[in-house]
Structures are given as structure tokens and as C-alpha cells.
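Chain A, query sequence.
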Amino acid sequence: MPSSFPKSSADWNRAGAAGNFLAPIDQLSPNAFKSVIVGGLSPYSDIDVLGSFNTAKATLPHLRTSALEHNAAPHHSPTAPSSAPAFTPSLLFISATLHYTGTTPLQSHVSAAKAAIDSLSASLSIEHGPFGIRSNVIAPGAISGTEGIERLAPPEGSETRRELEKNVPLGRFGSVREISDATLWVCGPAAGWVTGAVVVVDGGAWRLGGGGGIGGIQ
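Chain A, predicted structure.
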């Protein structure tokens, strides 16, 4: 947030933590499913759907203030120009691709959560576009050096890991830097007319079904 702006404003907000573990539906308890959709036993552990909703709900007033300051709210500012504003504040949700084809086993809970996040972002893009606020989703594939890969993927350098990487059309897992670059584009002025979109950053893996064998591992 630029220091010249009042503390009541914000330029962008990111939501959508991952809550991932492997489990078949017949061994998935209601509490386990709820832990991903709603949150764990702690009142501070809301993840995925409810956590994304709460974060968006808390920051929307500040994003509206920022939109007015940037003269980016065409329906709510009498001085808003008809040309593109220099900047539009935005919401950014982190999702996944494993629910696109329904071919990723042991991930029904995460698939349901990520599909809900995609829908939440789409609704926000329509409801808050007139206020000059954009809402988009980034859907990463398998990203090296992240907790999800460390917990759910075979060790780096193993033959199984190399086979999984070969299943990605671009022949490798992604990097944290590549997700950062996508984030900068989605939240920056170059994407000022992009809202309601899902930007997939997975090396083409989801096109093969199941995210190239481990869709949804982040």
C-alpha cells in the first residue's frame, strides 16, 4: 500500500490457502471434509472456501476506497473518465486445476473447495466490477520448493519424480518465481481489463487430465 494513501485503502488482496491431504471418499470423514471447506477445530484455522470468503469480506471496503482514490469506479464516481484508469484494485484467489476434469483421485475434498473458490471469484467480479474492483484466480500446477510438493510428491531426483515431471507438457514442475510473475501481471495495470478470469500456470498439465498425474499439489 503506497504511503501516500490513507490507511483505510488497499490496492490488492490475495486469498486462498491450501488445505491438502490424500484420502478416498469412503475413508473421508465429515470432519475431514469440513476441515478443508470450512476450517479446522481452531477458530483461526479457516482455510480455502471460508477463509477466502472472510478475507474478501474484510478487505472489500478498503478496496472500494482505493478504487475511488484511483478514480477507477466508473459507476460510483462522478469524475471517473471513460478511458482506462491507471490502476484498478483487485482480489486474487489461489486455486488449483484438479477439479477441471474430475480425474484426480483422492482429492474430492480439495476439488470441491477449489471449485467453490473459482465460483466465489466469478461472483465477486460481477458484483464489484461497478465499484472498480477486479477479481481473478491463479491456478498453479505442481510448484517445486513448496510445502505441498514436499508432503505429497516423491523426493526430488527420484525416478518417480522424474516420471511425474515428464508428464507435464513443458517437461518440469513450475517455480515459485513463475507464480510470483503471474501474480504481478494479474494484479498490475497490464491486466487492468481482466476480471472474472482463471489464469492457469501449470505448464499445460491439466490438459492431460489430473494435472499431469498430481494435479492440485501446490
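Confidence is low (pLDDT under 50) at residues 1-10, 41-45. Helices lie at 30-37, 48-69, 108-128, 147-152, 159-166, 176-187.
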